[in-house]
Amino acid sequence: MKTKLLLGLTAIAALTALAACGSKSSADTFSASTESPTAAMSGMAMGAPAKTGKGVGEVTTIDTAAGTVTIKHEAIPAVGWPAMTMTFKANPLSLLTGLKVGEKIAFDVSVNGSDAEVTKIQPE
To answer: In this structure, what are the phi and psi dihedrals at residue 19, rounded to the nearest 5 degrees?
Structure first.
């Protein structure tokens, strides 16, 4: 019985050692790089150009103090978004002038990472 247990434990240890030989840890991967993982990730985000698209929707909230507008919009395929309700920065702020909650609009959007700006608004 002891012999079987010893053979089983030896086999498990050998398999574990073999599995570890062929893999690199994430620490090994990053230590070979000349830049830190944080620097590499920020470079990817910074170098990506903004995506732009056109959407249609309905204004649900206007916050002139924050310079934002919340729009319940249809899908915007150009930026890869499904239909949803979200808050956008208004650029320029004058886009919010005369805008009304409940108004149906067409709008242009610019998306850079997690930042989304409405750059043009027209009543539908």
So the answer is: -65, -40
Residue 13 in tokens: 């240890």
Token pair, residue 50, equals: 């903004």
| Single-letter residue type at 35 | E
Report the C-alpha gap between 15 and 96 in whole angstroms: 65
- 3-class SS string, 70-110: EEEECCEHHHCECCEEEEEEECCHHHHCCCCCCCEEEEEEE
User: What is the rounded CA–CA span in Å between residue 76 and residue 80?
Assistant: 6
Task: Quick: pLDDT tens for 110-120.
Answer: 999 889 999 99
Mode of pairing for the β-strands spanning 84-90 and 115-123: parallel
- Which residues have CB under 8 Å from 42's CB, separation 6+? none
Contact 91, 119 (CB under 8 A): yes
Is the separation of the CB atoms in 69 and 97 below 8 Å? no
- Give per-residue pLDDT as tens, 23-45: 444 343 333 333 333 333 334 44
- Compute the CA torsion angle 24, 26, 29, 33 (nearest 10 deg): -170
